[in-house]
Amino acid sequence: MDATAGTAGHAIEIAKRLTTGRLVALDRDPEALEIARERLKEFGEKVILVHREFSEIGEVAEELKLPPLDGVVADLGVSTLELDSPERGFSFRSAGPLNMRMNPETPLTADEIVNQWPEKELANLLYEKAEERDSRRIARSIVRARPIRDTAHLATVVAGVRKARGRQKLHPATKTFLALRIAVNREEEELGQFLSRTPATLNSGGRWIVLSYHSLEDRLVKHAFQRLAQEKRFRVLTKKVIQPSEEEVQANPRARSAKMRVAEKIDPAWQGPDQAASKFRFWGVALEPRLQLPGTQRRECAGLAGKS
To answer: Are 39 and 12 a contacting pair, CB within 8 Å?
Structure first.
């Protein structure tokens, strides 16, 4: 199962390698899912596309009456489609509405947070969700500049008040946009539910791959995998998180913050020590402990590229 299909970057590579079985691909973004549907149509009934949140992986497996899964991949963050569409409001590179919703049915928008939330709540959000050290100063500036018209206006307000620290590589508004996106899409809650529900859907020996793009996400994944390993339910195949090589970052700048962790479900009777693989397979491709994933550029964290 590809729990975050996006525009099918990973799904295409998975489908190409399937000799038996099927691929189920989920995504909360209906626009991305339609693009994925078109790109995957050559695979016919081998691929099933479902418009659902990835936190609902258990419900989807039950509704489709799926057997235990042999693999689950989740590529977290925001897609290139969303980032490069100004009307979606994810990027500070061009003017767009303060939207940031991955699913258009989500009731909360960035506009509500930016223009209506109290200053203290806004500052807490920036600090807690994006570890923004200038959160109070930024929140105060946003409140004074209300109404904030669009993403470009917001980026200008933040850049004008945020302190420069050393050789700053990221845009000053990166963390502000990240925190807003996380709040609008309930990303922390969604990821928590996904991490708690996925183990029950996997077959013994099934692989679980998660790519994250910022410290909050990676921390949640790391701790979940460690807990499952301690419970002797999974073994972690990535003793150290896998990150992109310098060559890949040069070829694909949006992959620079990617972190990949992999775990394997084990038989309940297995009592041996945790064994990390120095080499493992990602959908049929042998990988060294470096990031060499097809379609990594498909998903990323808002703020880094052009972002990422």
So the answer is: yes
